[in-house]
Amino acid sequence: MDIFISNTSGQPIYEQIVSQVKDKILKGQLKAEEPLPSIRLLARELRISVITTKRAYEELERAGFIVTMAGKGSYVAPRDPGVMREEHLRRVEKYLSGAVEEARIGGVTKEELMEMLELLCQEND
Predict the structure, then answer these.
(1) Could you report the per-residue pLDDT of 67-92, keeping only the tens digit for each?
(2) Global pTM?
């Protein structure tokens, strides 16, 4: 599993792992019931602490993206449409919040912003 860790990022390492694994699941690069590397193996591959990898897996499990079975390892959880939709909504909200802030800084009106969004949605239909 290709995960890239940036030591210069302001984001904690476990969050980088969580983010990248979620991305791979949402994009279908990791399929339901696909096994994940063991915590120890991933820690060794990334040259990070086992504790950090364990924290990332626990976070992914709490969020419903993976399941862990004692003695068998961790697997991509079966796709729960509700969990996937919530994650997509959360991401869209994050991007839109950034766009709204950028518009505010640049003096773009709400009407102009709504018009841009409408045009972008039409382009993708």
Answers:
(1) 999 889 999 999 878 888 888 898 89
(2) 0.73
Q: Check residue 108 and report its DSSP letter.
A: -
The conformational region for residue 116 under phi > 0 = left, psi -120 to 50 = alpha, else beta, is alpha
Tokens of 118: 């409408």
Query: Rounded to an integer, what distance in angstroms lies between the CA atom of residue 24 and that of residue 4?
Result: 13
**Distance, C-alpha 29 to centroid of its chain:** 12
**What tokens appear for 36 in the block?**
């994940």
Token couple for 62: 């709490």
Question: What are the strands, taking DSSP E only, across 1-125?
Answer: 66-69, 73-76
Instruction: Report phi then psi at 74, rounded to 5.
Output: -110, 145
